[in-house]
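COMPLEX REQUEST
Ligand: nicotinamide-adenine-dinucleotide
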Amino acid sequence: MSTISVIGCGYLGAVHAAAMASLGHRVFGVDVDERKIAALSEARAPFFEPGLEELLASAQSDDGTPARLTFTTDIADAAEATVHFVCVGTPQRRGEFAADLTYVDAAVESLLPVLKAGDLVVGKSTVPVGTAERLAEIIRPTGAELAWNPEFLREGHAVDDTITPDRLVYGVPGGEAGEQATAALDEVYRTTLDAGTPRLVADYATAELVKTAANSFLATKISFINAMAELCEASGADVTLLADAIGMDDRIGRKFLNAGLGFGGGCLPKDIRAFMARAGELGADQAVAFLREIDSINMRRRVRMVDLAREVVNGSFIGKNITVLGAAFKPDSDDVRDSPALGVAGLINLQGGTVTVTDPEATDNARRLFPDLGYEADLETALRGADAVLLLTEWKQYRELHPEEVGELVRGRAIVDGRNVLDPAEWRAAGWTYRALGRP
Ligand code: NAD
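STATUS: Structure written out below.
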């Protein structure tokens, strides 16, 4: 059993803290956000993530066993820990592509007074290559060491992805310090490793690049199929059939080949931009120049979606009720950072449409970001009187909508499927105008 601190309890850190406690470790979760810490201390998840509240409750149980999980705003409480995970945000810098590292720097700075010789600081935040080397120099005078252990969890599956990830990557220093860091991380991940999870031990730079490269590849796969969707639109072909056919080649694979409104969220967009910025600093900008095109293809899908929506309401949004299904950047999350759905909703609002956004979990977060849009938590109410329905986040309840039942609520039977998840034949048979990205 290890004693662990987790600095930064957002989408990544709160799940990591709860998951580590569920594996039997003693965990102190630290955040500067008092509201988040208050919620977590009462075993309430400050955001929607399936399974998180159950995990929080089990680790903070009042059944007489000592709590394994404590949340605090006081970094001094982390002094008891010997392994300190840094899980704070690395957003895009305003007006630049580069990552803003002020939170990572502040978190490390705040840890310095509590670090003891032999402690291990473990970076999990996604950072530009070279960050770990720089931070290691700051940490070493305390006698502690640094490892970088990038995180690959997917929001909506974060609990399982943390406990049983596809792989563990450790970026460690050379020599004995690296061996000690590896041993300390093996102790933390003992259960996961025993379950057969592969682990790769690398230097700092490789570990940092693994994360950025993985996100760049995923973004490329999505934008590749969306580029094919543009060609399908120009030629009358069907991108969903095309994806099925090329995906049957196991060198290509069908996963992440769902054409649609593209990617968003708090990771992929800012991570590929930060990668371009860092590559430029390293004099290797040509190597990832293609990511600019990946980003552009992705953003063009939002504009195309607005065009399709305008077409189904006869060329103008003015005086039209547009119901947007989905506000989160993906289903099973309430995260609205760079949400494609909200981007589209905002553009239609600016063009004179009366937009009503609904989402099972994310309307409160969306309202804070885009206060001008209309919101309705109840799906039936949101659909009532719509001239067009746009499916922009593929929550299960939207994929399962029944064309006849929805048809009874709306004013005009027009739907644009931004995620290619509905059956066009079924909707058309019920008298709907059905349009989708990349399909005739
Ligand atoms: P987030 O914004 O949800 O959480 C960051 C948290 O850090 C916030 O609660 C904030 O209050 C806290 N914080 C900021 N400065 C602090 C400080 N000095 N001390 C203590 N707490 C501090 O962000 P996130 O989505 O959890 O992402 C965190 C990092 O993990 C980012 O680098 C991100 O790229 C990476 N990541 C995220 C995901 C994901 O799916 N969300 C997946 C893999 C990697």
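REMARKS: The pocket of nicotinamide-adenine-dinucleotide is lined by residues 7-13, 30-33, 36, 87-90, 103, 106-107, 110, 125-126, 151, 153, 155, 266-267 (CB under 6 Å). The domain at 3-202 is CATH 3.40.50.720 (Rossmann fold).
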